[in-house]
Amino acid sequence: MSVRIVIDSLDFVRNAGERHGKIPISEFKRLHSLLFDHGGELSFYVAGQYDENERPGLYLEIQGNMQLNCQRCLDKLSYHVDIQTFLLLAKNETELSQHDDDDISDAILAAPELDIVSLIEDEVMLDLSISVRHPDNECSMHSPAPNKNHLIDQAKNKHPFAALASLKKQIEPKE
Ligand SMILES: [Zn+2]
Fold first, then answer.
1. Which 3 state secondary structure label does DSSP give 104?
2. How far is the CA of 76 from the centre of ligand 1 (A)?
3. Ligand 1 centroid from CA 82, angstroms
4. How far is C-alpha 134 from the geometric centre of its chain's CA atoms?
C-alpha cells in the first residue's frame, strides 16, 4: 500500500494549509537503488506560505535517517536527512523559468494535484546528489595518500633501537 498525500497547491497557500506526517523510506521508489536497506521513515512538515514579495510557495521540512550504500565501497552508510526549504509556486512554465533565472529561490510548477510524497523524494534526491560516500577516514576503499606523518611512522618502526626495545620486551621473563 503506498502513501499518497496530494494537495491543491495554490489553494493550500491561500488557506495557510499545514500538513505533517511520516513516510516509510520504502515508499520512495526512486531512492531504492541508493539504499542499503529500506528501513526507517522520514518525517515531514509542509506549510503554504507567501514569501516577502507576496509570492505563493511551500515551506518544506524533511528529517530522518536513511541507510545508504557508500558510492565508493558499497558498504552501509548512515545518512541524516535534514532539509528546510522554501519552494516558490510558479503558475505556468514562463513563470517557472523566470524563477529559475534568479537562483535565490527554487521553484516548482503549481498544480491542483501536487503529490507531496514525490516532492519530498525530489528534495531528498537533490540533497543526496552532492556525494554519498563515507568520509575518507571511515571508508574501507580509501587508501590514504602517503603523507609526512606516515613516513615518520615508518621510519620509527625501522629504527634499530625501537626494534631492539621490542625484542627485549619479548625476552624479558614475565613475572
Ligand atoms: Zn565507503
1. coil
2. 8
3. 21
4. 12
pLDDT at residue 172, as a whole number: 57
- Rounded distance from Cα 83 to ligand 1 centre (Å): 23
- For position 101, what pLDDT does the model report? 77
Q: Is residue 57 part of a domain?
A: yes
Distance 74 CA to ligand 1 centre (A): 6
Q: Tell me, yes or no, whether 158 lies in a domain.
A: no
Cα(148) to ligand 1 centroid in Å equals 24
Give the model's pLDDT for residue 147: 54
Residues in the chain: 175
Q: Give the residue ranges of the chain where pLDDT is below 50.
A: 150, 152-153, 155-156
Q: Is 151 inside any structural domain?
A: no
Q: In angstroms, what is the span from residue 69 Cα to ligand 1's centroid?
A: 8
CA–CA distance, 63 with 41 (Å, rounded to integer) = 9
**Per-residue model confidence (pLDDT) at position 100:** 75
The beta strands (E) that lie in 51-139 are given as: 56-69, 76-90, 106-109, 114-115
The answer to whether residue 108 is domain-embedded is: yes
Domain count, the chain: 1
Which residue range(s) make up the domain with 62?
6-138
Q: What is the tens place of the pLDDT at every residue in 136-150?
A: 899 998 766 655 554
